[in-house]
Each structure stands twice: as structure tokens, then as C-alpha cells.
Amino acid sequence: MPVEFLSDGEAAAYGRFSGAPSQAELERFFYLDDADRGLIAERRGTHARLGFALQLTTARYIGRFLTDPLDVPDEVLVYLGEQLGIEDVSQINQYTERRSTPFEHQDVIRKAYELKEFSQAEADFLVWAGARAWNTGDGKKTIFYDGVTWLRTNKVLLPGVTTLARLVVRVRDEATDRLYDMLRGVLSPRQRVILEMLLEVPEGRRSSDLERWRKGPAAPSGRNLEKALELTAEILGVGLGAMPLPPEVPHRRMVDLAR
């Protein structure tokens, strides 16, 4: 399903392998420590031990369990096989013959590593994302990817890409609406009318007064300096410079709006 602020490639790469991990990533995410090996050793059969290790490290690397737990690069299987003393990693194909086995292993991994489903952390995520959107004004894509980092840091399994994207859009839009409502609240009725009129394109002209205010005279000359001063006087006449700005609005948001 398309996501408005992610490209098709970005959406497709979410929560899955987008290629073989680097050697550094293999050593960081796919190395099996004593605790990992203890759990793996409890599984019966070579394919079950390799499959369990695969799901454990996959969740550690990409932040979720795959619909097809075998949809991984060969380099990952070989690296895990070397650690477990399994030369023939093709035995992994037996892992999904019993359909319930991967799901049973996922439950064990969740409990052992205290991984939470997104539904358990959704309220906390919304608080974090809402504060991030309000205080920084960052774009949706930035909040989305930092949200992925937040979820992984807090041991929360990633939801579907559309679920996370829609929540980010929602909190970002809510923060923007809140900001605009606050700013609108400090305007006098006269200022509101003037600002709304700035958006209209008068008959016989190609641009609005807002565009005229934003651009101003381009080439430096005595006459253009006079025009610039006249334009400044026109803008100051609206009285927006004397607006009492709401103290609740973060400084960074006001700087971004001014820019």
C-alpha cells in the first residue's frame, strides 16, 4: 500500500532485509552470545536450532519477525551456521514444514528478550511522536525513521509500514493544527481579515500580495530602495510585529516559521 511521504522503495525496504548485512552488522546483530546459545540448545533438531537462531537475530537486526522466516540473505545463514557448527545450512528448509514451529519460537523469543508488540507500546509511542512533532517541527519522514529507532531501543516489534506511517501523519498534522490555532488566537479580527486577503490574487494581477511581500524589489537601486521602504511600511502597518506570541510555542518552531 502506498505511503504518502515514503517512496515505493523505502516502503518496500521497511522491516526486511534490503541486502546482505555488512561484516560489522553480522558481528553486531548476528553474533550468538551465551544466553542466545542456551536458548538455541533447547531446540530439537539441527534445522530447529538454526531456525530459532535465525528468527532471534532477524528480530534483533530489523526489529520484527518476518512473515517468511527464511526470506534472508545466504550470508546470514552461513554466519549462524558457522557459530552453531552446522555445515549444511540448507537444512533450514525443513524449519517451516511444521507450520506452528516458527510461531512457537517467536513466543519464546518475545518472552526471553522481553520484546513487546506494538499494541502494547502504541500509547507511549504517540506521546513520544507528538512531543517530537510539536517541539521540533521535523518532517514526517524524519519522525518516521527516528520512530523506528525509538521502537527498537524500547524493545518494541515494528508494526506494518502503513500503521506506523499513518500514526506519524496524524501526530504531525495535529501538532501543525495546534500551532496554527495558537497563532490565529493572538490575531485581532482586523489582522485575520488582512492576512486572508493576502492570499487572494486581485483581478488583473498574476500573484497575491503575500507573494509581493515575500519577494520585494530584486535589483539594488535608489528607486527600488524607496519601494522596499514603502513595502516595509505597508507590512508594519498591519501590526503583526506587535503580536504577543504564545509562550507555549517552542522557540525552534517560531524560528522555522519566521524563516
The strand count comes to 0
Q: Which class do the helix and strand fractions yield?
A: mainly alpha
Q: How do the helices and strands follow one another from N- to C-terminus?
A: HHHHHHHHHHHHH
Overall pLDDT: 92
Helix content: 55-70%
The termini sit apart by: 35 Å
Please state roughly what percent of the residues sit in beta strands, choosing from under 5%, 5-15%, 15-25%, 25-35%, 35-45% or over 45%. under 5%
Radius of gyration equals 28 Å
Low-pLDDT regions = none
- Indicate the overall shape: elongated
Number of helices: 13
Main β sheet profile: none
Entry summary:
It is built from 13 helices and no strands.
Topology record:
Elements: H1 8-13, H2 23-29, H3 34-41, H4 46-62, H5 74-84, H6 100-113, H7 118-136, H8 140-153, H9 161-185, H10 189-198, H11 209-215, H12 222-236, H13 251-258
Helix pairs in contact: 3-4, 4-5, 4-6, 7-8, 7-9
Describe this structure in words.
62% of the residues lie in helices and 0% in strands. The chain has 13 helices and no strands. The chain is elongated. The two termini are 35 Å apart. The mean pLDDT is 92.
For this entry, give a set of tags.
259 residues; mainly alpha; 0% strand; elongated
